[in-house]
Write a structure and sequence with these properties.
Blueprint lengths: L9 E9 L6 H17 L2 E10 L6 H14 L7 E5 L6 H18 L7 E5 L11 H9 L5 E5 L10 H13 L13 E5 H22 L6 H13 L3 E5 L13 H24 L2
Parallel strand pairs: 1-2, 1-4, 2-3, 5-7
Antiparallel strand pairs: 4-6, 5-6
């Protein structure tokens, strides 16, 4: 829970990339609405929840539109939803970057004080559970950190090699931050908005350079954002272990995908080491 001494006024903007997520979104939004109510009691007001539909071929956009219409009928809603619908699938990197931009633009247009605004990114498949939001925000609202990241402890339900891979690669990856996060590229991340505003343009540049260098998308975008916050802006980062994934939302990670992730991890570490040197 958010510590009681941290109950100053905080604004929260959540952005959620989604692709063919019609099965998980109804439950996600329901649980998110309850979490938003709980956050209010801790002095955190959720100003906007932005779902980026990355060219889904299912009913993802319809779920959001339906939820938005239901909220409008009630005149006031504890879940202020907004939809960004892409005509075609552009991939997770573009979706996360679009979410960051939309969140920063919303804060600017609505005159929110960036130092007291948190921008949270989470997934739409319910591996990231809304009930964990308070714990992820805790380090930020308590003043202990500028950025907070939640990590998942994978187990054999995700595949026999998934726990070993995530711990080994995650710890290697996060050593660059001077800390240990035992998950490969965790994506449940809360930034104070004034930090993200500095990181965002550099992240776009890094994404373009990465693709030009390696010929692939920088899917490790979330981790690179953490690294930039730490290496360039000396941001303090805290991590929190998330709740176990519920059985019905468990996904097996194929061996071939883990192999691709390992290659991506190596390229990311190589890129960041060169990047950090070039910034000196």
């Amino acid at each position: 829970m958010v510590k009681s001494e941290s109950k100053s006024n905080w604004n929260l903007i959540i952005h959620i990339p989604a692709y063919n997520s019609e099965k998980s979104l109804p439950e996600l939004l329901l649980r998110l609405g309850k979490s938003v109510e709980s956050l209010k009691k801790s002095g955190i007001t959720t100003k906007q929840v932005i779902v980026i539909d990355d060219g889904s071929t299912d009913g993802t956009a319809n779920v959001i539109r339906s939820a938005t219409r239901d909220a409008e009928k009630k005149l006031q809603s504890n879940l202020p939803l907004a939809l960004i619908q892409k005509k075609k699938n552009e991939g997770p990197v573009a979706a996360v970057l679009d979410g960051m931009k939309a969140a920063l633009d919303f804060a600017d247009k609505n005159g929110l004080t960036l130092a007291n605004t948190i921008i949270l990114r989470m997934d739409s498949d319910l591996e990231h559970q809304p009930e964990d939001i308070e714990r992820v925000l805790d380090a930020v609202v308590s003043g202990a950190a500028d950025v907070s990241v939640g990590y998942i402890h994978f187990d054999s339900r995700n595949g026999l090699l998934a726990p070993f891979f995530n711990e080994m690669v995650g710890l290697s990856e996060s050593s660059l931050l001077g800390m240990g996060i035992p998950q490969f590229c965790p994506g449940f991340v809360a930034f104070r908005a004034h930090i993200l505003k500095k990181v965002y343009p550099k992240l776009i540049n890094a994404s373009e350079r990465f693709k030009k260098t390696f010929g692939i998308e920088m899917v490790t975008l979330d981790f690179v954002a953490l690294a930039m916050a730490k290496l360039e802006f000396s941001s303090t980062i805290e991590s929190v272990r998330l709740s176990p994934i519920e059985n019905k939302w468990i996904k097996k990670i194929p061996l071939g995908k883990l192999w691709k992730y390992l290659d991506l991890h190596k390229k990311t570490m190589e890129f960041l080491k060169k990047y950090s040197i070039s910034q000196e």
